[in-house]
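Retro notes, structure queue

What went well: the backlog is down to a handful. What didn't: a couple of records were mislabeled last round, so from now on we paste the full input next to the output in the thread. Example, using Oxidoreductase from Actinomadura sediminis:
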Amino acid sequence: MPGGGLSSSALMRWTGTGKIVSFYRYFLLNLPRTTTASGVALVLGVGAVHLYLLVTDQALGGGFDAPAYLRAYCAALLGAAVLSAVGMVAAPKAGWALGSLVAVAAIAVYVSSRVWGLPDLPALEGHWGYALGTFTLLLAGALLGLHFTVSTGLNVAWPQRRNWHD
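Corresponding output:
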């Protein structure tokens, strides 16, 4: 291969995942408004959890005062979630991409805080039983899954691409 790199199609052929991912060619869902509304609800759900953490002064359920960097993270994630929700309607590709970044950031911070802990909050290490954290993981994972189906073409989130409308 030119450049010595492995293309994504060759990688999918080699691992066998190409056949699994290609099912979207035979099964399509034509619900663009429902898909977009679901994406908006999921990303706003992630933002709402972070708004709750920001307002209640409960740093991830341990009853600790939140450090300044954690408040900044919650505020930034909340802002990105709202911007993503607006973007999913106004500029779909950018909105969905930002929504996926919000989901990845939420998952990464929660998992890293439980595996390695956070500065000034060492008690969070190993504290996996926090209900809002689990709820956030579910919302973020569902958003990533939904974005995967949109990007592969299984779901339609912007009908202009296929001329499908509700």
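Agreed that this is the format going forward. Reviewer comment attached to the example: The chain has a mean pLDDT of 81.
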